[in-house]
Amino acid sequence: MALKVPTFVLGQGSHRLNRIHLSSGLPLNSPRYVRVSCKARPRQFRKQQSKQLSLSRPPPDINIQEVADESTTDQSANSDSFSNFQLETDSDAEDDGGPIMSNSIGEGFEDSILSEETGLLTEKAKEGEQLSNIQLEDLINLIRNAEKNIMLLNQARVQALEDLDKILGEKEGLQGQINVLEMRLAETDARIRVAAQEKIRVEVLENQLENLKRELSDRDASEGSEGNIDEKPSKNVNMLNSFSSLSEELSELREENICLKEDIQVLEAKLTKVQETDERVQSLVKERSFLVNCFKEVETKLAAAQEDVSKLSALKHECQVLWEKVESLQPLLAKATRQADQAIFFLQENHELRKKVDRLEESFEEASLYKLSSAQIQQHNELLQQKIRSLEERLQRSDEEIHSHVQLYQESVKEFQDILNSLKEESKRRAREDGPVDDLPWDFWSRILLTLDGWMLEKKISSTDAKSLRDMTWKHDKRIRDAYLACKDKSEREIRSTLLKLISSGTSPGLHIIHIAAEMAPVAKVGGLGDVVCGLSKALQKKGHLVEVVLPKYDCMQYDRIGDFKALEAVIESYFDGQLYKNKIWVGTVEGIPVYFIESHHPSRFFWRGQFYGEHDDFKRFSFFSRAALELLLQAGKKPDIIHCHDWQTAFVAPLYWDLYAPRGLNSARVCFTCHNFEYQGKAPASELRSCGLDVQQLNRPDRMQDNTEHDKVNPIKGAIVFSNIVTTVSPTYAQEVRTPEGGRGLQGTLNYHSRKFVGILNGIDTEAWNPSTDSFIRSQFSADDLQGKVVNKEALRKLLKLSSEVATQPLVGCITRLVPQKGVHLIRHAIFRTLELGGQFILLGSSPVPHIQREFEGIAINFENHPHIRLLLKYDEALSHSIYAASDMFIIPSIFEPCGLTQMIAMRYGSVPIARKTGGLNDSVFDINDDTIPVEFRNGFTFSVPDEQCPRAGI
């Protein structure tokens, strides 16, 4: 291991480091600033390949000596030296008066060490034990340089400790000086106060003197003629005496004031020095903390160096052992080489002998053929003629049988054709009867509905006529079917006029339901939301309801799964950011459901990002889509009974519908909101709500859309809960969990307040798409009554993924999931190793949007890349998922929380036993085989409660 010591500085200020004693006992005086650096070169290992090895063993008694500094000599002698250590001195270190180690002393010390080492190597060379291996030289140099590193680190540590002691001593002295100066400063303050009082007194006396002078002048003027001449001089003398005394006192005070000012200036200068000293003390404290950090780093490097030395000693011992093995293998290699040469020689001889034997055998066969008599040849020919005749007879009988079978087949075909014709006549007869027609696929009726809506949006028929024709299509009226088929190849105008003749009143057989969602399988699927929207629409359609879906037109959709996909000539304008933006409307059928796709012409290209979610402006993207979807319903003249919106991406529909579109005439519907996962709530600053036209001041309130935890943000899901007529989630257990602080993610208070309209309904799966008896993705179809196909599918999947097939009954565990913390990734990781430990096989299909989780499982996948029992496929593949469901014996779903989950339902549909944690929809659909509180006929898997790696059952 290469040791790399970072450059650092020990000591600072005007203090010189003391003498440091090296491990060899020699003193070394260091300057005030010491910089230690180490540059390491990686060891180079050279591989030599030859037919025979000629290696010389290094002498076993080489001693590695400690040196103080060998960097300069090593660098000049060998350009590949391992490290260079340099000591830089500061010129002002001599000002402190301490001894300094000169370059000549250092060079002499290096020369002495080098001479000793050179002498030792010379003696060893005389004894005939020379080092010929570059790797061993590198190892020796590495050990020496590590020892030098340790010595230098010890020196730096001792120097730093001594410098620290000096700094602490200086700090104590400075603290004493600071205390003295503080006392003197207090005395100076007292003297300043006294001087101020004296100054005030002087001012008072000056005022009195002025007053006396004025009085004197006044008296002189008034007593000029009346007063006694003898009394006047005496009064003047008294006044002059008083003036002189006051003047003297005033001068004394002035002198004293000047002295005090000088003292104040001196004290201010000293105070400035005290402040500078305090700043210096603070810098010393900072230097001390820096040195402490340096000590810690040095100790860490020292520990690493000691570990390297221990590893190097182990490597040295291992090298000696390897040399012993090489010496023992050398004669064996020579012997093997000789044996190989002999074997090659013998093989060459055998090859030549084989050629000779082959030539002899050929000549022998030719001779044996000539020995055959003509009688035997003739007899052989007669036998062949007999066999030919018998074969001709059998061929003739076979032709007759084939001819009879062909006649029977032709008769059966004729009979089948007659039955088919009779069935067609019966079908026509039934078609002539009144009543709805159910013998056509859903795509046919959805195509008619989309055609009618396109005509209405393009203003080719009125909204009233469109509604009447939609009702007839909704009822599967045979008249509209016959009319549409009769004029299918005609022009659009003729078709439109023919259908308008059929308008008649009638009542709808069910409800008109419109789903507004961000996903729909299989064209735009990220998770279970897409499956639910598609499966629920198909189920409602089979119940006799008119179902339509509105989706964004993403650039990354699977357009090949859309039937009759086309753009309408109509353009829908919707409001956003203070202006109107155009939207192009596309229509098509998905799994027999009529779907409208909104293509936004906003300059931000909201849905041309190459992905469905995860953009920085998702709040704006889907609030724009929600308003454009309602604008489409309004301008298309639709009068739905239910508008069903899903998750936070379309939660804007509820407040937009009641605040903006119900007053404009789109008021026939009730709004249903389904939250498939309360973890994703789409929070954003309240100001962004203004873009789609909603009133921020009215909605950013605690009882409406203001988030319960972040009051400066709005929560779309909270708004949908408040404004929807009914709120659902995807399982009864999850509906209870989200009403608690742990599961509600901040919305538990809102859900409890609106609990009367909040209900949990367990999701389901599309049993037509997930049907093992008709699944085209799997190798062999099977059912609950015939599980032989499951064995075939397991064998086919093992061959596809190159897993071991030695034990046909070896259990196979499957897992198909998104690798996110919600799904219990730590339990999935544990299940991989636990399955391998118990002798099973494990297949994982799925990826992670979390980078560190994706990297972790990529590492596991690489580790098991060619393993016969483990395979990790970090992607999503629809066809492969069907194969894994059909082949697996068990399926794990260890979710930390799970609103519903479809994986366990699909797994049970394909005969795979689920192993699930009791949470959310898993608790409502998987019942433990050993749970006595559940009737036996409902027990269908294994469950656990605590999400840790401890397994309560030995078999799981």
Structure, explained:
The protein is α/β, with parallel strands linked by helices and 956 residues long. It is 52% helix and 11% strand. It has 23 helices and 21 strands. Helix 3 (134-222) packs antiparallel against helix 4 (231-371) and helix 18 (788-801) crosses helix 21 (878-887). The protein is flat and about 180 Å long. 29% of the residues are buried. Mean pLDDT is 78; it is low at 1-114, 124-132, 228-232 and 952-956.
Task: Give structural attributes.
956 residues, alpha/beta, 9-stranded mixed β-sheet, 6-stranded parallel β-sheet, disordered N terminus
Structural topology:
Blueprint: E1 9-10, E2 19-21, E3 27-29, E4 34-35, H1 71-77, H2 103-126, H3 134-222, H4 231-371, H5 374-432, H6 442-457, H7 463-474, H8 478-486, H9 492-500, E5 512-516, H10 528-542, E6 546-552, E7 563-576, E8 579-590, E9 593-600, H11 618-635, E10 642-646, H12 653-661, E11 670-675, E12 684-685, H13 696-699, E13 713-714, H14 716-723, E14 726-729, H15 732-737, H16 741-744, H17 748-753, E15 758-760, H18 788-801, E16 812-816, H19 825-837, E17 841-845, H20 851-863, E18 870-873, H21 878-887, E19 890-893, H22 903-909, E20 913-917, H23 920-925, E21 942-944
Helix pairs in contact: 3-4, 6-7, 11-12, 18-21
Query: Share of helix among residues?
Result: 40-55%
Query: Number of DSSP strands?
Result: 21
Whole-number average pLDDT?
Answer: 78
The number of helical elements comes to 23
What is the SS-derived class? Answer: alpha/beta
Q: Could you list the spans in which at least 5 consecutive residues all have pLDDT below 50?
A: 1-114, 124-132, 228-232, 952-956
Oligomer: single chain
What percentage of the residues does DSSP assign to strands (E)? Answer: 5-15%
Distance between the termini: 44 Å
Spatial strand order of the main sheet: 7-8-9-6-5-10-11-14-15
What is the radius of gyration?
51 Å
Shape assignment: flat
Largest sheet: 9 strands, mixed
